[in-house]
Amino acid sequence: MKQAIYLVYVALPVILLWGAKFSGKRFNDGFLSLEQTKAIQGFLAICIMLHHIAQKTCASWIQPQTRIVHGLDMFVPIGYLLVSIFLFFNGYGVYKSYHTKENYLDGFIKKRILPVVLALYTTTVIFFIARLLVGEKMDAKQVILYLTSIQLCNPNTWYVIVLPFFYLAFYFSFKFIKKDGLAVLSATAFVVFYMLLGTRIDHNNYWIRGEWWYNCVFLFPVGIIFAKFENKIIPHLKKYYWVYLVAALLLFYPLYIYSGFICNIFGYYGDNWGAPDTIFRRRVSLLSQVFLTTEFVFTVLLVNMKVAFGNKFLKFMGTITLEFYLIHGLYVELFGWQFDGGVPSPYHIKYVLVYVLVVFALGVPSAMLLKRLHGVILRKPDAITSHSRKAA
Known about the structure:
Layout: H1 8-17, E1 21-22, H2 34-58, H3 79-100, H4 108-133, H5 140-148, H6 158-176, H7 180-199, H8 219-239, H9 241-265, H10 278-304, E2 307-308, H11 312-318, H12 321-334, H13 352-378
Antiparallel strand pairs: 1-2
Helix pairs in contact: 2-3, 2-11, 2-12, 2-13, 3-8, 3-10, 4-5, 4-6, 4-12, 6-7, 7-8, 9-10, 12-13
């Protein structure tokens, strides 16, 4: 029964390739279209779920050795790579919308930022109730920290905390700076400043608590820059497509190994053993991961230029990515051996494949209910995921 989890590696290609179409000698000119990006988001939402379950089952720095069950090991270290694609779409999407939709910035905060913040706090309340029900003890200070999300009540929410700030940086840059290039530079500078700030903050229990808060966020301005110059970039990529594709495919794994080597040598955790050059170490490690995430997204885009992914299942998943991302972790915690924070989980599922199926089976309808709830509150049923570049 333990070996059954490897069926995941059969199911994922089937899910991704079902209904996919190869463009042959031509190109898939809709590789950044609404339909295509929704399909990618839907698939990545499932992979992110597997990443979180992998952390609960086979991450050696999280689980005691006696609790480790192998099978999803591949998913343990790749969460930031998966999220990097969403960040690229976020940046690409807001820039394209700004230049194609009249008066796009009017109501930007309400339409683009408020739904993300609402999703964050509705799921925070749900997690807070769950923590009380599983028996976590809290004093008044802890209650405030959890309900404000200053300390993450839902442990998977870093992305939806930082994303609104990036959107605000985009909003203010393009609202008050008339030159497009300078506005792009301003939005990019904000993200770079955030990354540099992150490397100055030691690991903690609050915001920017670790490198995963900033090691892939550079793809947000990369998406903006790509959108700005796509009329020049895409024809160039088409002209030398096979050279770029082969180079990208051959380079990814060595770069992945190299980044891992750099992070092991320099690392993000010098604060744990009093390294005198902790900030420098973090920035060297961060730079290697910036190169890796950029190359990874570049590779995905190149593949998409030839293969049109999409089927009804992925299209459906693409409509609930934000909600699924935020709520599936509740079931990851409830059915793991320990709830986040140290309280034993009430319903530990021993077999990892069953664990995966239960989390997915409960996460999907929960996400659908959340989407409907958010729609009622915002009086706009598709407010959160109507755009293809919304986060997973």
